[in-house]
Each structure stands twice: as C-alpha cells, then as structure tokens.
Amino acid sequence: MQTSEPRDPYGAALGALKRFAEAGRFVPGEPIVVTELAAEVGLSATPVREALACLAGQGLIERRRGRGYFYPSLSPAEIIDLFELQLAYLHAALTLYPRGLTPLRKAAVAVDPLDGVQALFDAIINQSTNAALVLAHQRVVDRLKAVLKAERIHEETDGATVRTMVEVIVDGRIPALLGLLESYHERRCSRTTILVIEAA
C-alpha cells in the first residue's frame, strides 16, 4: 500500500528537520543531501528544499552557494556572540516585567534545578510573554542546541547554580540575579573552545 504525501508537505518537512536537529541527527559541518533526506522522511525533494531554505534564513542550517546545505558548525567566537545575545534577552526579560515579579517567581520555582541552567533561562524568557523576545530566544537556543548539550556535561550535578538563582528571584533581588548571570556568562564563555570540540 502506497502512502500519500501529507496535505502540508512543507510543514511536514520543516517539522521533520527540526526534530532531526533537536535529536542530534546532524553533525556540525555535515552536508545535508536533499534527495537522501527527502527519501528518509517520505517526501519529495521540493518541500524538503523549501524547508531547508527557511531554516537557512533563520541561521539554523547553512547554505553554501553552489555546494548545497550543511548543518552549521559554530566557532568559539560565534558561540560567545550567541551566549551574549542570550544574556541580553535575559536582561530584557528581567528588567522589563510589566506583569510584576509574581509570574517570574512562579516560573522560577517551577523549574527543577536538576534540569540545568538552560531550563531556568527558558522559564525566565517565556514568563515575559513578549512573543518577539520568546521567538528570538528560541532561535538562539536552536542554533546553540549541540553546544548546550555539551555544556550540560560541565554543569554541577546537584543543581546548585539554579537553586541559587531561584532563591534570588524569589527574594525579588533582580540586580543580584543580573550579577549572577554575568558571572555565569563569563564562566561559560571561558569554556567555548572545549564546547566546540564536544559539540562536534
């Protein structure tokens, strides 16, 4: 029995590519062969090519003129740039809170410290309910996916950093939290060379 192509082949291709990237299916620097990928997801090459073009526009896939599509590999400088962008987004979410501190406190205490610092960062950004900020942050997280996975290896296993940050949020000491974020940022930037190797 032959399966028919979905009603939205482009959406299906885009969803499949995002799932592959999240699952670590692609290796940084790996070429992405459209025909092979289309066969793997059971679609024609056109929607897969369109999805790759969309993801290339978002910086999640690299398009090299005349050579095709590649899963991007980030240099230490690019990782630091993305870490700095994430820090700026966190700063915005923490200093522009029109809904007050209660939603921020609720979001922070709902995070399991063992899920790591990135889980807390996601909660801080998402509670802002600023759609543009949430989308921009998600794009940074998507670009850093392999790096964040490697970074988890270097985090303490007891969740101490997250617990400290959550305590500061619960106390409403946002300037102190910004200081903790700056310190964390400096530590993670000092590990970028190692993270590049481990993310590959």
TrEMBL record:
<keyword id="KW-0804">Transcription</keyword>
<dbReference type="InterPro" id="IPR036390">
    <property type="entry name" value="WH_DNA-bd_sf"/>
</dbReference>
<dbReference type="GO" id="GO:0003677">
    <property type="term" value="F:DNA binding"/>
</dbReference>
<keyword id="KW-0238">DNA-binding</keyword>
<dbReference type="InterPro" id="IPR000524">
    <property type="entry name" value="Tscrpt_reg_HTH_GntR"/>
</dbReference>
<protein>
    <submittedName>
        <fullName>Sugar-specific transcriptional regulator TrmB</fullName>
    </submittedName>
</protein>
<dbReference type="Pfam" id="PF00392">
    <property type="entry name" value="GntR"/>
</dbReference>
<dbReference type="InterPro" id="IPR036388">
    <property type="entry name" value="WH-like_DNA-bd_sf"/>
</dbReference>
<feature type="domain" description="HTH gntR-type">
    <location>
        <begin position="7"/>
        <end position="74"/>
    </location>
</feature>
<keyword id="KW-0805">Transcription regulation</keyword>
<dbReference type="GO" id="GO:0003700">
    <property type="term" value="F:DNA-binding transcription factor activity"/>
</dbReference>
